[in-house]
Amino acid sequence: MPEGVLEVDRISKRYGEVVALADMTFDVRAGELFGFVGSNGAGKTTAMRIALGVLAADSGEVRWNGGPITFETRRRIGYMPEERGLYPRMKVLDHLVYLAELHGMSTNAAHRCAEDWIGRLGLRDRRGDEVQKLSLGNQQRVQLAAALVHEPEVLVLDEPFSGLDPVAVDVMSQVLRERAAAGVPVVFSSHQLDLVERLCDRVGIVRDGTMVACGPVDELRAGGESRLVVDAPRAPAGWADALPGVRAATTSAGRTVLELEPGADDQAVLHAALATGPVHEFSRQRPSLAELFRNVVTQEAAT
């Protein structure tokens, strides 16, 4: 296995009769942004905590660089929990220095890195404030700084964008891109699927503790149901309903969106559209990640 790879290999976890994870498998590669998406209770946080060694799996294994997760390995992981994991009465700078020292940094190195991330994340004016006096968005920035301050070799972030304003989202996104560009594997969960689609190299979709789809965003979207967008302003209502392979058609102001069955002949659709008059647009449309997520989860639930 190449250097810098976090592997989650067939991990399972039960709480009595409740199956939290069932043979969960995925990996996060060096320099990659991996999005971990799923409904509430799907198992994302449980998988992350097992990856960190906070929870023990009933079966399966988590490996970093081909070896098991150990105490020393965990010190090289940057973790950002969904819940606030900060001491509310500690001052921002003191808090970050303390956490960096817990990860093995010298006091001088801890101060240097803490000041660096305070500046990078726009917290310089709040460095002497108690955490509890910060807004929720600034607390989230401190939480990210806490995950980064010890210069981790891998980042595991649980809902890092929760509660952030658009400016803070941009700052957070840029930091994650930079860490990935530096060769750090980055895995994060989020319900903001448009953001996941924009940021991530690969995405894993989780349902009921199982990975139901995993791969590059473009490949996942390409595997979804194909649609055609046809702008034929003179076409009458229902003009495409009888065409072979057309599952559904929605027309508004002359613009028709067609859902096609696999193997449907789009040229037959174009011929039918041209028969009604001019065609101003004829383009194939792939589902967004949000649409793909809904389709995958709905299909799995129905089986």
Task: Give descriptors for this structure.
alpha/beta; Rossmann fold; Alpha-Beta Plaits; six-stranded mixed beta sheet; four-stranded antiparallel beta sheet
Task: Explain the layout of strands and helices.
Elements: E1 6-15, E2 18-28, E3 33-38, H1 44-52, E4 59-64, E5 67-68, H2 71-74, E6 77-80, H3 92-102, H4 107-120, H5 136-148, E7 154-158, H6 166-181, E8 186-189, H7 193-199, E9 202-207, E10 210-216, H8 217-222, E11 227-231, E12 246-252, E13 255-260, H9 266-274, E14 281-285, H10 289-302
Parallel strand pairs: 3-8, 3-9, 6-7, 7-8
Antiparallel strand pairs: 1-2, 1-4, 4-5, 9-10, 11-13, 11-14, 12-13
Helix pairs in contact: 3-4
How is this structure best described in words?
By secondary structure, this protein is α/β, with parallel strands linked by helices. It has two domains: 6-216, P-loop containing nucleotide triphosphate hydrolases (Rossmann fold); 225-285, Alpha-Beta Plaits, CATH 3.30.70. Helices cover 34% and strands 28% of the residues. It is built from ten helices and 14 strands. It has helices at 44-52, 71-74, 92-102, 107-120, 136-148, 166-181, 193-199, 217-222, 266-274, 289-302, and strands spanning 6-15, 18-28, 33-38, 59-64, 67-68, 77-80, 154-158, 186-189, 202-207, 210-216, 227-231, 246-252, 255-260, 281-285. It has a six-stranded mixed beta sheet, sandwiched between helices. Strands 2-1-4-5 form a four-stranded antiparallel beta sheet, with helices on one face. Strands 12-13-11-14 form a four-stranded antiparallel beta sheet, with helices on one face. Helix 3 packs across helix 4. The longest helix is centred in the middle third of the chain and has 16 residues, at 166-181. The chain is elongated. 35% of the residues are buried. The model has no long low-confidence stretch (mean pLDDT 89).
